Amino acid sequence: MKNGTDSFVSLGHWPSAGSFGFNTDILATNPINLSVVIGVLIFFGKGVLSDLLDNRKQRILNTIRNSEELRGGAIEQLEKARARLRKVQMEADQYRVNGYSEIEQKKWNLINSTYKTLEQLENYKNETIQFEQQRAINQVRQRVFQQALQGALGTLNSCLNNELHLRTISANIGMLGAMKEITD
C-alpha cells in the first residue's frame, strides 16, 4: 500500500501543486490541453456535430436526388425534342417531295394546257383560213359570174334585135307559167 500512498504523497511534492501558474513548456502542455479540448468537444459536440453532418448529408442527398430528377426530366425533354425534330424533318422532307411532285404536276398541267390552247388556236387559224378562202372563192365566183353575165348580156344585147328579144321574153314567161302550174 505504500505504493498507493506514495503516489498521493508525491503529488504534494510537485512544485505547481500548491500554486497557480503558467507552464511554459509547450511540448508538455500542448498534447494534454489538446487531448482535453478534443475530448470535451467529442463528448459535448458529438451530437451537434452528428446533427450537422446528418443535415449536411441529407441536403447533399436531396440535392443529388433533385439533380437526378432534373437530369431525368432534361433527358426526357431532350428525347421529346429530338422526336419532334425528327417528325418535323420528316414532314419537311414530305412537303419538299410533295412540293416537287406538285410543282412537276403543275408544270405538266401547264404544258398540256398550253399544248391544248395551241391546238385550239391552230384549229381556229385553219378554220379562219378556210373561211377566208371560201369567202375569197365565193367572191371570185360572184365576180366571174357577174362578168360572165355582163358579157352574155352584152353579147345578147348586141346580137338580139327587138323581135328576137320579145320572143325570148315570151318563151321565158311561158316556161315560168308552166313551172307555176307544175308546182300548184
UniProtKB/TrEMBL annotation:
Family annotation (Pfam families): ATP-synt_B (PF00430)
Coiled-coil region: 71-98
Stretches that traverse the bilayer: 32-49
Topology in the lipid bilayer: Single-pass membrane protein
Record note on quaternary structure: F-type ATPases have 2 components, F(1) - the catalytic core - and F(0) - the membrane proton channel. F(1) has five subunits: alpha(3), beta(3), gamma(1), delta(1), epsilon(1). F(0) has four main subunits: a(1), b(1), b'(1) and c(10-14). The alpha and beta chains form an alternating ring which encloses part of the gamma chain. F(1) is attached to F(0) by a central stalk formed by the gamma and epsilon chains, while a peripheral stalk is formed by the delta, b and b' chains.
Keyword terms of this UniProt record: ATP synthesis, CF(0), Chloroplast, Coiled coil, Hydrogen ion transport, Ion transport, Membrane, Plastid, Thylakoid, Transmembrane, Transmembrane helix, Transport
Stated role: F(1)F(0) ATP synthase produces ATP from ADP in the presence of a proton or sodium gradient. F-type ATPases consist of two structural domains, F(1) containing the extramembraneous catalytic core and F(0) containing the membrane proton channel, linked together by a central stalk and a peripheral stalk. During catalysis, ATP synthesis in the catalytic domain of F(1) is coupled via a rotary mechanism of the central stalk subunits to proton translocation. Component of the F(0) channel, it forms part of the peripheral stalk, linking F(1) to F(0).
One cellular component (GO) term of this entry: proton-transporting ATP synthase complex
More about this protein: In plastids the F-type ATPase is also known as CF(1)CF(0).
Origin species: Fridericia trichoclada
Family statement drawn from the similarity comment of this UniProt entry: Belongs to the ATPase B chain family.
Full protein name: ATP synthase subunit b, chloroplastic
Compartments, record wording: Membrane; Plastid, Chloroplast thylakoid membrane
Keyword Hydrolase listed: no
Listed GO MF terms: proton-transporting ATP synthase activity, rotational mechanism
The keyword Transferase is annotated on this UniProt entry: no
UniProt-listed InterPro entries: ATP_synth_b/b'su_bac/chlpt (IPR002146)
Top-level division of the source organism's lineage: Eukaryota
